[in-house]
Specification:
Blueprint lengths: L22 E4 L6 H11 L5 E4 L2 E4 L4 E3 L5 E3 L9 E4 L10 E3 L5 E8 L6 E4 L4 E9 L11 E6 L2 E6 L2 E3 L4 E6 L2 E6 L2 E3 L3 E6 L2 E6 L2 E3 L3 E6 L10 E6 L2 E3 L20 E6 L2 E6 L2 E3 L4 E6 L15 E6 L2 E2 L11 H7 L7 E3 L5 E3 L5 E3 L15 E2 L17 H6 L2
InterPro entries: Beta_helix, PbH1, Pectin_lyas_fold, Pectin_lyase_fold/virulence, SO_2930-like_dom
Keywords: Signal
Protein name: Parallel beta-helix repeat-containing protein
Length: 400
């Protein structure tokens, strides 16, 4: 595993920028720092670096960036030493920072206590989130912003060495995007630590997801512009002690995630879960389920298909299953259900040397109250191993 989270205070030069590129420095001590920072983001030109001075920035309004090939660089993420964008006094309900341009690097700063999402990017291709901290400092609360790191509808997304805590939906969320890498990051005390939703070709690896309600989620949902999520690899992660009571606002899809879930796959195709350390997740280390909610979308496919679980290390799990009837099942099985839980829908292969519990719901329309639980090992021929995600060299160069 690479270095997971290493705040660095020093700013470094951006390579391969146009000859006319410049650095625009903004100080946190400026009385009108909010206005000056937004002005710098507006006036920046392709190749420019907007440099955040060290200190605590007391911001009342959200920020936005819509210029291509801009770097927003701080002095680090550590309190007392870094560039800390504090939105505790934010007047609107929007995100702290919104990016809508391509080839952007966000690095070495913290975003705290936004009323809405922490950092969001939309239709922002080749975006890099690097060495960032997004946190709601009062801990898990329903009134916290929904998402910490939130790229959506983009191609080529890299999230590297970020820390997110306290999101009321997902700490790190990537939605409706293609060619995605989430690595070397920490998600703690969120509802969902890391969520990949309706994405094509994603690698989630070398992360730590601890003390969330659910550690890592791979979803495909109906009625979204991009559907048919597929080719997702979840590997070499530490997914442990995801025991925080679910604090998502009622009505959110993640409000249904049982507390104590390690890795949850819902209605995706070709998902490979391997090489992870899974332990102390009270409901299950791994769950594989169909989408069992009403929907009005003729194109939607609600079954998980070609899911492969292999070569993971499983510790204690299934001792506090937080779904209807779970406690009774655990009691009947001697105090815990098996580490892998499958609702019976779709197709899955589990080649880990652990027990698997099938809830016997092959048809997603079957009410859970009519399920007939039965042990199953699901072992068999594995789907073809998925290829890894390759990002443009220009993106990788930015985090070296």
């Amino acid at each position: 595993m690479r270095v997971l989270f290493l705040p660095i205070a020093a700013a470094v030069a951006v390579a391969a920028t146009p000859a006319a590129a410049k650095t625009i420095s903004v100080s946190a001590a400026t009385p009108d720092a909010n206005e000056k920072l937004q002005e710098a983001l507006i006036l920046a030109e392709p190749g420019d670096v907007v440099e955040l001075g060290a200190g605590v920035w007391k911001l009342t309004d959200g920020l936005s960036l819509d210029v291509d090939n801009v770097t927003l660089r701080g002095a680090g993420v550590k309190d007392g030493e870094g560039s800390i964008l504090d939105f505790s006094g934010q007047q609107g309900a929007g995100e702290g920072l919104l990016v809508t341009s391509d080839d952007v690097l966000l690095t070495d700063f913290a975003v705290l206590n936004t009323r809405g999402d922490g950092i969001k990017s939309k239709d922002a291709n080749r975006i890099v989130y690097h060495r960032l901290r997004v946190e709601w400092t009062a801990g898990p609360k329903e009134t916290n912003g929904a998402y910490g790191i939130y790229p959506v509808e983009s191609r080529d997304v890299l999230i590297d060495s970020v820390y997110v805590r306290g999101a009321s939906d997902a700490g790190i969320y990537v939605g409706q995007s293609k060619n995605v890498v989430v690595r070397d990051s920490i998600a703690k005390e969120n509802v969902a630590g890391i969520e990949i939703e309706n994405c094509y070709d994603a690698d989630v690896h070398d992360n730590i997801a601890v003390q969330n309600s659910g550690g890592i989620l791979v979803f495909d949902l109906p009625s979204l512009p991009q559907q048919g999520g597929h080719n997702v690899r979840v590997f070499d992660n530490i997914v442990q002690d995801n025991s925080t009571p679910n604090f998502a606002p009622k009505g959110n899809i993640v409000a249904s995630v049982p507390t104590g879930t390690g890795v949850l796959v819902m209605a995706n195709r070709r998902v490979e879960i391997f090489g992870n350390a899974l332990e102390n997740n009270g409901t299950a280390n791994v769950m594989i389920v169909g989408y069992r909610y009403p929907y009005d979308d003729a194109k939607y496919q609600p079954l998980p298909q070609d899911i492969l679980v292999r070569d993971n290390v499983h510790g204690k799990a299934g001792f506090a299953p937080a779904f209807p009837g779970g406690a009774e099942m655990a009691a009947a099985m001697g105090g815990a259900i098996p580490p892998v839980l499958w609702d019976g829908a779709g197709s899955a292969v589990v080649n880990d040397d652990v027990g698997v519990l099938s809830l016997g719901l092959p048809d997603v329309s079957t009410p859970q109250s009519e399920a007939q639980p039965s042990p199953a090992d699901l072992k068999g021929d594995a789907p073809a191993t998925l290829p890894g995600v390759t990002l443009p060299a220009s993106m990788e160069a930015k985090v070296q």
